[in-house]
Amino acid sequence: MQTTIRALPLLPLRGILVFPYMVVHLDVGREKSIKAIEEAMIQDRHIFLATQKEAQTDSPGKDDIYRVGTVAELKQLLKLPGGTIRVMVEGIARGRIVHYLDTDPFFKVEVEQYCEPQVKTTQLEALMRNLTYQFEQYVKLSKRIPPETVVSALNIEEPGRLADIIASHLPLRVEDKQVILEAVDVGERLEKLCALVAKELEIVELERRINVRVRKQMEKTQKEYYLREQMKAIQRELGEKDERAAEGEEYREKIAAAKLPKEVEEKALKEVERLEKMPPMAAEATVVRNYLDWILALPWTKSTKDRIDIQAAEAVLEADHYGLKKPKERILEYLAIRKLAKKMKGPILCFVGPPGVGKTSLGKSIARALDRKFVRISLGGVRDEAEIRGHRRTYVGALPGRIIQGMRTAGSKNPVFLLDEVDKMSVDFRGDPSAALLEVLDPEQNSAFSDHYIEIPFDLSNVLFITTANLYHNIPRPLLDRMEVIYISGYTEEEKVQIAVRHLIPKQLKEHGLDKKALMISENAVRRLIREYTRESGVRNLEREIATICRKTAKEIVAHKAEQVRVTQRNVERFLGIPRFRYGMAEKEDEVGVATGLAWTETGGDTLAIEIVVCRGKGALTLTGKLGEVMRESAQAGYSYIRSRAGQLGIDEMFHEKYDIHVHVPEGATPKDGPSAGITIACALASALSGRKVRHDVAMTGEITLRGRVLPVGGIKEKVLAAHRAGIKTVILPAENKKDLEEIPANVRNKLEFVFVDHMDQVLETALVKDDLGQEVLTAAPPLPPEVTYQPMVQERPS
Ligand code: ADP
After folding, report:
1. In this predicted structure, which of 30-44, 82-96, 175-189, 766-780 has the lowest mean pLDDT?
2. What amino acid positions are annotated as catalytic residues?
3. What are residue 661's phi and psi, to 5 degrees?
4. Which atom number of ligand 1 is nearest to the Cα of residue 355?
5. Which atom from ligand 1 is nearest to the alpha carbon of 495?
6. pLDDT for residue 668
7. 209-236 burial, b if ≥16 CB within 10 A, otherwise e?
8. Cα 277 to middle of ligand 1, angstroms
């Protein structure tokens, strides 16, 4: 091979290698290199390009630079800002550094420049074809090199040049390129390059395969995603399925979170499945949804922790209620037993008493004492079994019964559950609510209470049931057997005053947003409220009146900027209007034919004036005032007794043929019943027929037999309190009721005179007015209307 020796400035290259025939731009910054370029420019523009072994080396020495490089011509020169020079060089021929002539201020080397022979042997031709073929493949696969390059490469005839051009296009490492550069022999060069291209081809092929695999995988997930999105869009367009699935999913999540008992969960999941199969707008779907909501809302497993601390319970009861000594004691005993026998299947408490005596609020206090939730349902007027047990889901608008509704409200499975007014349920063709209630209250059955709507048995055994009633004898018998009755009778005036001062007034002040100083109600004013504005056993109306005063006070404060309002005995009327009741005497004067009885009504005790008039007639007995059967019968009994005793009483024995008798009990709109008015009717009858007056300050109660015996009656405490309220002085009671006097507060007992009687004669003895000398006043004839003289009757009287 021909060579020429030349002395040339050296430009060391970093990370790049220039082949002959290659045109490249180089940015030159190093001082030594710039000087070399300047030298070249002075000479014939030729420069020797050799690559550094390590690109990082800043000022390379002789050994840091490859010996073989390229002789190149500087084509263009451009000064860039910052002192760098951009040069365009074109490779001319291979060269090898023979030795370094100079190293400072720039490298100057003696170079042996090769001149390549242009002969083309068959072997070279074969190698060339092989190389171009492989290169073609490579370009096809790698896509990194523009295909035109292949075309221009194909046109190259010189084998050495072909190798150099291809090598310069391939993304080879500098070391590999150097190997090609150093292969001065063309055959060797082609062979080496073929090997390199083959290797590259393999790598590219591998890359491609990896690529394909990655893409395939990506495509698959992408495709799925895309399809799913499309499916959703279609479903949305059709307006179904997707929502349903989402709803079902939502319910499933809720069910899982609710931790339902297994049986309930299974049922709920079955319903969800059903729901998913229905069109969302179907009426049936709403039914299922409602059902699921109910199931999820019920406290199947949730419960609160009990606090069974008798002292704490006592403190709570005392704080909430004034008086009520006996009921409180009974409640505490009951709680103590519950503490001892954890899962006691004991009786249900039943508070019996007139309205407003604190039955409901005692229930609330028990819940507070035990730290349990409290729910209350009223059974007043319930006449349908379905109200307790719910309707089957097949009915439109079906709902669970009140028990299950109560449990949902409670939100725990062990609340205190107050069943108000168990005595007010009634029975009709729709079934007997008390039978359903029996199942609720029966500890043997209520661990699996079945509601028609819910269908799955619900456990009520942890619930503390409390019932209330106004009248004992209206409570359904079977229920009564399971209950422990606690009577709460009415309050005395003094008790009411205390309750008002300690509880009702502070409570109402708070509810009306007033503070203690804004409204002062004197004790005497309270007393007036009790006497003249209410007539009741409990304190419900009293509380209402106090609320009225609070409202008016609030108005005065807001509208008239009053700072303080005082309510005294004298100005009560300003707030409440004229008094509603006359306090004091039930009757003002002694009269003929009017006797005061004592009655026990739902609202507590009351006085009852029984009036009788006698007129000429044919012996008819008329009873008016909405009297019940028992009361009518006892009036008949009294009538017969008087007839049988007419002689002794100085009454015309034939009165039953000559006179019509009318018995009326005022307040005619209120139904009245019971036997306890027996002696009162008999007394009034005796008075009316004999013309003797009845004492207005005497009140009485007692059942009468045909022979005139007086039998005991109930509700003594209520009745006596009512008598006291009405200003009665003497109370006639059956002798057998003497024991009941104990219940009556001493301050009331001491103000009254009690006469205990066995027989009707004793009643008349006490009740009928005696003359000044204490003699019985016997009037010969019944008082008749003025136009009728009673002369004829005198004549008719047997001597
Ligand atoms: P009931 O259920 O017997 O009809 P409530 O419990 O509704 O009566 O009582 C009516 C109001 O009277 C309630 O505000 C209650 O707090 C109050 N009350 C009744 N008795 C007492 C009492 N002994 N001490 C304090 N407040 C009472």
Report:
1. 766-780
2. 676, 719
3. -120, 130
4. 4
5. 23
6. 57
7. eeeeeeeeeeeeeeeeeeeeeeeeeeee
8. 53
